[in-house]
Specification:
Layout (H helix, E strand, L loop, with lengths): L9 H46 L4 H28 L7 E3 L1 H11 L1 H6 L3 E5 L7 E3 L1 H18 L5 E8 L5 E7 L27 H11 L3 E7 L3 E8 L5
Parallel strand pairs: 2-4
Antiparallel strand pairs: 1-3, 4-5, 5-7, 6-7
Helix pairs in contact: 1-2, 1-6, 3-5, 5-6
Length: 242
């Protein structure tokens, strides 16, 4: 099963990208609204729990339950932060650059995660190298989110294959493949939506942020996952022209 879209004629492709951006904007507004609604109650709960902790110091049952409250508050704070990161990102600052150069830094930053699972990230850059309009910081964030998901899904001791190519029109295309279990048929059609995750307690914004960033770069992102075939995520970003 695949979340990829079929090839489209040029005018249809432009309309599709506009429609995608509109949907992303709606999701961003909802996410930011939820984050703002949650922020004050979460702060109030944390403050009340801390006050109880200082006022009642000799009851182990109360202390145990305050600890549980504070752990849930930390989880909710992480959710609020993730929703704001998706819903109210910094403006994109585009400049010509090499997407595969960003991959080199991203892979290096995940060295600890890779070594912890004995997973090897095999990166094959495009030849010739592509030149695209990119925001280095945000583009790195998108690649980092995808690599984190690939490492988590990859079996211990396996490889994550990152293969880039430069298309005939100069566009950059990159696939990220892991041999882990397939994404469930229930989640797959919604995998790029915020708050969608198969991992309990996970905010589920990583791939949503990657999708938003690719839209901001006039690019696309698609995911293909099937039994026995692993999972492949594909980026496409247009070349710099003129």
């Amino acid at each position: 099963m695949t979340a990829a879209q079929p090839d489209l004629a040029p005018n249809t492709a432009v309309q599709s990208r506009v429609s995608q951006r509109d949907r992303v904007k709606v999701s961003q507004d909802i996410s930011a609204g939820l984050a703002h609604e949650l922020r004050n109650p979460v702060f109030a709960i944390a403050s009340a729990a801390q006050l109880l902790r200082y006022r009642i110091t000799d009851d182990p049952v109360i202390e145990k339950n305050i600890g549980r409250i504070m752990r849930e508050v930390e989880r909710l704070n992480a959710l609020v932060t993730a929703l704001l990161e998706y819903g109210r990102p910094a403006p994109v600052q585009l400049a010509p650059g090499d997407p595969d150069g960003i991959w080199v830094d991203v892979i290096a930053s995940h060295r600890g995660d890779l070594e912890a699972k004995a997973v090897l990230a095999q990166h094959t850059p495009a030849t010739p190298r592509a030149v695209c309009n990119i925001d280095p910081g945000q583009f790195a964030q998108a690649l980092s989110s995808v690599l984190s998901n690939a490492i988590e899904a990859a079996p211990e001791g396996s490889d994550v294959a990152i293969v880039s190519s430069t298309q005939a029109d100069g566009a950059w295309r990159c696939t990220v493949h892991n041999d882990g279990p397939p994404v469930s048929a229930y989640i797959l059609p919604r995998v790029f939506e915020p708050l969608v995750s198969s991992k309990p307690g996970h905010p589920g914004t990583g791939l949503a942020i990657a999708h938003r960033i690719m839209c901001d770069h006039s690019g696309t992102i698609a995911l293909d996952s099937a039994d026995g075939g692993g999972t492949t995520l594909t980026f496409k970003v247009p070349a710099v022209h003129g």
